[in-house]
Every structure is written in structure tokens, then in C-alpha cells.
Design brief:
The complex is a heterodimer of chains A (550) and B (437).
Chain A (H helix, E strand, L loop, with lengths): L2 H13 L12 E2 L12 H17 L4 E17 L2 E19 L2 E7 L4 H19 L15 E6 L11 H17 L4 E17 L3 E20 L4 E6 L19 E3 L7 E3 L5 H17 L1 E2 L3 E7 L1 H13 L4 H5 L13 H5 L11 E4 L20 E6 L2 E2 L21 E2 L8 E2 L3 E4 L8 H6 L3 E6 L4 E3 L5 E4 L3 E6 L2 E7 L1 E6 H6 L1 E4 L6 E10 L4 E9 L2 E10 L6
Parallel strand pairs in A: 5-7, 11-23, 12-19
Antiparallel strand pairs in A: 1-3, 2-3, 2-6, 3-4, 6-7, 7-8, 9-10, 12-28, 13-14, 13-18, 14-15, 16-17, 19-22, 20-21, 21-24, 22-23, 24-28, 25-28, 26-27
Helix pairs in contact in A: 2-3, 4-5
Chain B lengths: L3 H13 L5 E17 L2 E19 L2 E7 L4 H17 L24 H4 L3 H17 L2 E18 L4 E17 L5 E8 L7 H14 L10 E6 L1 H13 L3 H5 L25 E3 L21 E5 L2 E2 L6 H7 L11 E2 L6 H6 L3 E15 L4 E14 L2 E5 L3 E5 L1 H4 L3 E4 L3 E3 L2 E3 L2 E11 L4
Parallel strand pairs in B: 7-12
Antiparallel strand pairs in B: 1-2, 1-4, 2-3, 4-5, 5-6, 7-19, 8-9, 8-11, 9-10, 12-13, 13-14, 13-15, 15-19, 16-19, 17-18
Helix pairs in contact in B: 4-5
Chain lengths: 550, 437
Amino acid sequence: MKRRDFVGLTGLAAGALFLPEFPSFGGTPVDPARLLEPGLDVAQKKRLADAGLNAAKAAGATYADVRIGRYLNQSIFTREKQVQNLASGESFGAGVRVLAGGTWGFAATNNVSEAGIAKAAQLAVQTAKANSKVQKEQVRLAPQKGYGEVSWKTPIQQNAFEVPIAQKVELLLAANAAALANGASFVNSSLFQINEQKYFASTDGSYIDQDVHRIWPTFSVTAIDKATGKFRSRDALSAPMGLGYEYLTPKAADQIAGAAGTGLIYYKNSYDILADAALAAKQVKQKLTAKSVVPGKYNLVLEPNHLGLTIHESIGHPLELDRVLGYEANYAGTSFATLEWKAKGLPYGSKQVNIVADKLQPGSLGAVGYDDEGVKTKRWDLIKEGKLVNYEKIRDQAHIVGQTESDGCCYADSWDSVQFQRMPNVSLQPGKAKLSVDELIKNVDKGIYIAGRGSYSIDQQRYNFQFGGQVFYAIEKGKITEMLEDVAYQANTQEFWNSCAAVCDESDYRLFGSFFDGKGQPSQVSAVSHGSATTRFNGVNVINTARKIG
Amino acid sequence: MLSKDDAQTILKKVLSFSTADECEATLNGSTGGNVRSARNSISTAGAAENVSLSVQARFGKRSGLATCNEFDDASLRRCVQRAEEIARLAPESPEYVPLLGPQTYLASPGSFAARTAAITPDYRAEQIGASMALCEQKKLSSAGFFNDSAGFVAKRNSKGLEAYQQRSSVDFSITVRTADGTGSGYAIANYTDLAKFDAARLTRVAADKAASSVNAKAIEPGKYTVILEPAAAVDLLNNMMNAMDARNADEGRSFLSKKGGGNKKGEKVFDERVTIFSDPTNPDVPDLTFAGDGRPQQKVTWVEKGVVKNLYTSRFWAQKSGVPDIPPPGGWIMAGGTQSTADLIKSTAKGILVTRLYYIRAVDPQTLLYTGLTRDGTFYIENGQIKFPVKNFRFNESPVIMLNNLEALGKPVRLGGNLVPPLKIRDFTFTSLSDAV
């Protein structure tokens, strides 16, 4: 059954204030003021968690963890001059995961009392024991020391929930007005805000209290040429970030000029939605009459707000160890980068390709102090000078690759979802030598400069991919010449990363983010960032996506 | 599971607590569970049971929603009060339309099966266990997902609207791979009634495809005649159906927008053998007979003999533009022929059989161009026979172009709440090869 069939009637209604067709983060609709009320204090959470841990042990669990989660969200949707939807949500409950008979069991409850959590713990043990009868592989956990009572908080300057809704609505409507004043036919804008207040306790002796914040302002501007019937869109060049509302107070120091001749402006740790909306409207009109690309091989110059998604799909996902091992075969897929492939020592990319996983990076979506199975987070190398050196893993996977510790990649999107391995922030390191975007382009004879996140698709083992973008410019003899349309590039992951010829320096480095990355059955979302500087890839196959219907 | 009378008793009480200008209450209940496997072993399992109430309160053009899952008088009263508080805080909606009054709904008793509602955790473990054992015997590796749900929806509002219906569903999908990872097969099914479910049959289909897809040959990408099995056709067709919104078309940003303004309703857009309709009373795909906002789901013809007959709309847009007020359908039915996929293969001189398409993403909404890849069983056909497995392809194709290049339609089968025929299409565009298995 399609999810919307069942969730549809109340699920949609639950999220919406006006219209039922907007995505919702779920939870119970609440008064926005509720988002600022404190949850349970740490002492209460510890008492509740201990009730769960004790019940699990008494029922025969050899390991248990309890997550008490309060997940808060607010989303605002507007179009042109009107608010379409405002929703504030709260979801509160506890999930208990246990090991019994060498098998995982999980149960969750929204009855957050000692009795409620103990009952969930017993149910989790019961499930683990039932499943252990048909289990072939016993779970082996990497050892993990307990941290005692600790806490972590996203280092935000302003909690977005403290900002009055009217002020946020005004900002979105002002962005819409800027787009309309510059010739847009339509504009939709939205603001997503998330706060995860999560408490983790385990039989290892950890009691971890965390307060995690994320934000994403975005829009899509559309221009229509009635005479020809042609329409085009240009989306925002913002990035979802692990920041507070300070992201929406633009600072000049955070603005980075795009390649000369494009007029593009990019953003680091703060975003000017008004300026970007005005520019988007101008660019979307140009897109209506831009030259259709001639297909062929081109040298591509990809800026970070575009390249982030390519990194995500062709490096971040194939190095998830659960995919490598086959646990996602029926849904998200497996990976070409198997243990056997790694052992061959073949180059993943050229020498310029240095990829790090980093759960600590400030401002990133994946930054937390500890993951959802109580492992302190860290930074580690995935690809060094083009060679695959490590994977992304959690406690029950480390032994499979002969390692003794988890990488801290465990995450659940809610208290009632079981935690499993998710992608950390995965980033391309900037070049060590000084190199600006214009210097990079100077050496490109025939190329295309691509900005922004567009259409994306990759196969289930992460070989063959196709990416579009938001805006495209032709590069001829070292210079940007004109805007192009109907561009998409197709490549093989290893060929593509081996064609990486140059990476700009640190001054061009910034984060791209994916707010709704899906994986697992039942499906869960997670948010993750990818940093890079503008990068050149040689001889990539570009196709023309224009078609004619009717 | 609340009965119709029990549900409406709660809803009447909810409405009696309301002081708003308009109030609508919806009860949604479901019980179900799932089990997931990989590497011939169970990886996760879960179960959930929930009944929740949502209350929508309106003062003038302001509206607010609240939900709860406790049904004593005090909890119900609090939920109504919360909806009213939120409504008072809300800005006026420029697209306000009043709540609907009493409606007449079709009956679709087949939408619920008691057998599905009675599924136990043991049953789920047995089914997935049997499926895993079958693969183990053949030295194949399976990854599967079994998910079931049964429940009801009940609705009532202050204008006199009243609705109640029960539903159930069973979903199963399985990917089977050879031990060396050089072959992969897939099967998927979805039913209302568990009686139709057969895990062993589906597992055998996936296992056979896995075994016969090893040593795939690379052939040049390009334009080929393809036979899309229903599991390969369903997502592209679903994407097209999801793009049949009247407002987007009227605003000029849809594949159904017309040059100079307006939409293509009444125009021939597809091959004349293309007919797509929805019918919530169809015994093979019984569905809810009311939409989320209470509008009746009737039998609606969307495309008839290639001509676009209807677009769906929001109530606001229907009133504003004076067009028929039709909600988007729950599922759709594409009329087909009597031939099986095997029959379509027999009549094909040269072509490619596609089991499944994967990672489908929009490339150009103007032409409804999509890209994605074949997966889990792609075969070359010559002189009416499957000759050998071929490497997977990336495609760039529009369902609109595809349904103009129609060679033949087979007998529709149920998938994802729709009835989907296997399709034989000429000049389907493959743009590159993939090494993925």
C-alpha cells in the first residue's frame, strides 16, 4: 500500500493548518509557543531510562539502550503573496533496543512513564527472542565505554523557534516579492526548522542528553513564456544547515562570488534570501531563452552547492557499510565498493580526491556529540589521495572489517524508529595550493560551469549516475561565455572521480546539505552535509535533455 | 478497530464540544506490523497499533488542527480547545472554502479483509522464514520486506458530513541475488486480502530472475523496443498521474499546459489505446470512497482513447475556475488487453524485457522527462524468445512519449493500489550502460 493511503487522511490533516497537501515532519500539531517549553529534566529522564534498562536486563537482555526523544519541528510554506501552510509539531516518546539471544529487538512507546518504558523493554526482549530462532548471524557489538552523565548542544546563536512566526512569514513573503519584482511568474518559499531533544542511556553506563538544531530556508522561482508555453524554474542556493536562525541574518563575510560572468553569489554560514530570490528571478527568465546544449564531452566546473549532491550519491552512499554488506539490497541497494574491491587497491579517484567523514564539523547537519547508540563522534579519512581507506560504520559492523570501534554513524529519525547506520557528513577536502574559481576556469578550453542542485539519479550499486543543476554556463577558451539549458551529465563513479583535475582552495570551501535523505524499510529520513570547493572534472559526457511532446 | 457506530459516537461527542464556526473531526485507526530480512536472516521487525483523532476548527477563514490519541471526555475536550486556540492564532486563508455538507458515498466493502487484520508476528516470521529457506536451498541470498496494515477512517463535521470505511493491505517485496553477486531478481506484490498472498511464488519469481540474469552481456545503449513489466511501468505512470493537477496546468507549469494559456483537457495527448480511470469499488483494487477532505471518490475517467478527459483540482481551484470538483484518485486503473508478459515476449522480434526501474527522478517537468535505471532482471528478446541477460541501462524517457510509442498492452495486474498492464513500447530511450547488478 502507498504510504499516503493510510497516513493520508489524518497524517496530512495532522500536519496542516490550511491545506492538506504539504509535507509534514509528523508529531502532534501544537501551538508554536509549546516549542519553547522545556521538556523533562535530566534527572527525570535518567530515572525513566533506568526503568527501561533494568526491565530489559531482568527479561534477559545482554545489552539495552533507551532513547527518550522529544522531536520538535515547524514548517512554513508560502506562495507569491500568501501563506499556504504553517505547522508546528511535537513528537514525544521512548524507544528501547535490546540484544537477546544474539539478536536485536526493538519496541517503542508514547507512554513515557517507568511502567510504559519497562513494558516496551519487555516487548523488545520478547521480539528479539522470537527472531533469534530464525537468526543466522549473531550480532557482535564493538566494545564501548560508558561516558557517565554528559550533554551536547548544537552551538546555535538563536533558536529559530524563539523568532516570532510573523517575522519568519514576513521574510519569506519579502523574498517572494523580490522574485516577483524581478519578473518571476510564480514563487514558492518555505522554511523548515527542527529541534531534536534526545536522551540516550545504555547498559554500558552512558547517560547522554543532546539538543540538536537544524534549519532550511528555500524557494523555487518559476518563469513562464505564455507565447511559447515554455516554463523554467530556479531553486534557492541556500543550504540546509545545523545552525539557528542566525543563518538568515546575512553577513558580507559569508558571501562568495561565483565565476566571473555569471553574477552568482554563494553563501557560507549565513544566507541572504532576498538577494538570492531577486537573482533567481533574473536568471530564470534567462533560462527561457538560453541556448540548448550541444551534447558531447566537456570539462565540468562544479561549484559546491551542486557538487555536494554528487559527493553524497557517489561517495557517501557507496561507503555505507550496511549497503556494502547487503543489508539494503531490497531497497536502497548495495555498493560497488565491496570489501573485495577495496582489497584490490584500485583508485576511487585521482590524487586530488581526499574525502573525510566528519561528525564534528560546526554548522553541518550531521554534527552531534554522540550518535544514537552512545558513541562519541569523530572525524576520519574515507579516501586519501584517491584511494579508499575506510567505510562508514556502527557498533555491530566494526568487527566485519576487522576494526574495534564504531565510527559513530548510528541514527534514528524518531523515538519510535529503530536506530541504524546512516551517512556522516562526507566532504571533499579543498586543494592545498592557492587556486581561485576564475584561475581554475582560465585553463578550461571547452567546458560547462554548473551551479545548484538539480535532478539526480544513480544505480543501486552506485556506478552510473546522472545529474542536472540549477544554472549552466558555457566555458570557452578560459572564459564564461553564455547561459546554457537542457544540460545533464552522465558518468561512472570511478571514471568521474578519476577525472578530477583540480580543486579550488579553502577560501571557496562551503557546505551543501541534504535535509531528507531516505533509507531503510520502513523508510527513515536523515540530514547530512557535504563540503567542497569548486572542482574541475575532465572529459565528462553531457547529454541534452530537451524533448518535444504534442 | 472501532466499529462505525463506536467511531461516530466519539465524533459526535467531539463536535458537541466545539464552539468554532465550523468543525470537522476524523478518526484514523490502524494496526499492523512488518519484518525485514537481508542475507537470508531477519534484520528488523516492528509492530504498531494506533488510533488517533484529528480535529479541525475554523473561525471565519482561520483554521487550526489538533490531534490526540486518548478518548475520555476530558482529552477530547482538550483536543477541540487546542484546535480552536491554534485557529484563533492563524492568519486568514485566502483560499478558504467552507466545509462540505452531507455527501453520498459509494460502497466498497472489499477494501477490508478480516484475514489481513488477523496477521500475527508469528505469521510474518513464518512467511519471511519460508522465503529465506527457499533461497538458502538454492544458494541464493535474499533481502525482503513484509508489511501489513488494517484499519478504518471515520469522519464527521458540523455541516452534516459523515463517513466511515475500513481498509487493509499486505505488501511484500523481495530481492534475490546470487552468492557471487552477478545475478539479481525481484518480485513485488500488494493485496487487500491476505488470501491472495503467496510468498513462495513471489520468491521463486525473484530467484529465477536472479539465476537467469548472471553473465549479462553489454549491448549498445540507444532506442529499443521494450516490454516493461508492471513493476517497471508503475512508477513512470504514477508520476504522470501525479502531474494531472488542473491548477498547475492552468498556471502554465505542467505537461498539460497549453501554449497561450489553459490546459489540454479534451485534447488527444496519447495513443488511442490509452485509457486510464479510477474506481474505488473495483474488486481488484478496492479503495476509500472518500478523499481526505470528504469529497466523494467516484469512478473518474482521466484519459479515454488517448484524450485527456479530466484533471483533478483542489476545491478552491475548482470554485475559482469553474471546473468540475474532482479530488486526486487513491489509485488508478490502466485498461489493457488479455495478453500476459510471456505473450508479449512471443510477439516480439527484437527487444528488451525490463523487470524493474529504479531511482526515477524528474529531469524536465515541461515534457515529463524522467531518468532512472533498469534493475534486477533485464533480458534481450529475439524472435519471440528471451535470448540472454543484458547489462542494466540508464533511461531518459517521458511517459507521454512512451504512451505515444505504444506497441501493445497486456493484462493489468495490481501494484501499489493500481492496476497496471505490462507495456510494449517502441523507441524507448536508453542513454548509457550501468555495471550495477
